[in-house]
């Protein structure tokens, strides 16, 4: 009896120590993730401040007035997200963090178009499975867009912009088809019969679990910011793809990649 009691006591102590060690590992893991998250947040904050300060000191040009205005509009949308994000759960706060990075990316491309350099290989990509997880066709379109970014291609800008626009628009349409959006909200149809993109965004955010009005406004503004860039490039006279145009296209490529990563998070729940 005594030996049995001692054995039970030793087992209880061992189980307790195992539980304590497991709890400590969980705490350590949480602390590591928290430190990494906070470091990313600080980096995004610093990058956004730096890019906005640089943008405010840049000499404005008629050619890129729309781009600058679009960046400031996106920053205004982010500020509203920033004000509300402390009251959101982890999913909402993740999108808020990504929104800050998107705003910095927008300011970066505006600065680049106004004369700053970007060091990036054109045919490399920061994307992994973000597009193939949605559609193999979208992934192939993106690869084709990258292939078009060649200094020897005089029509590189148009090819890249056309393909990239389709990628972004189709990401939303595939994951938020009209029938699904209308089933969730019969009032989402516009007078001309189309389903508003904002309603598709609201649908995706609801599926994700973060359907906040300011986030919906930011996502829509972010998409418009990228689409405005495509308009700027397509309406400009590029001629042969020289050094200046390639520098601008590098900036645009980085901007599109960021938008795709952001959207891939938004549509994750759909």
Give the secondary structure arrangement, pairings included.
Blueprint: H1 2-57, H2 65-84, H3 90-113, H4 136-148, H5 156-175, H6 178-184, H7 197-208, H8 213-235, H9 243-266
Helix pairs in contact: 1-3, 2-3, 2-8, 3-8, 3-9, 4-5, 5-8, 5-9, 7-8, 8-9
Q: What is the total domain count?
A: 2
| Apparent shape | globular
**Biggest sheet character:** none
Low-confidence stretches: 26-37, 237-244
User: What is the SS-derived class?
Assistant: mainly alpha
Gyration radius, in Å: 23 Å
Q: How many helical elements? A: 9
How confident is the prediction overall: mean pLDDT? 82
Using DSSP, what is the number of strands? 0
What is the distance, rounded to the nearest whole angstrom, between the alpha carbons of the first and last residues?
60 Å
Oligomer: single chain
Description:
This protein is an all-alpha fold and about 270 residues long. The chain has 2 domains: about 50 residues; about 210 residues, no CATH class. The protein has 9 helices and no strands. Helix 8 runs antiparallel to helix 9. The protein is globular. The termini are far apart. About 5% of the residues have low confidence. InterPro entries: pP_pnuc_1. Pfam families: pP_pnuc_1. Keywords: Coiled coil.
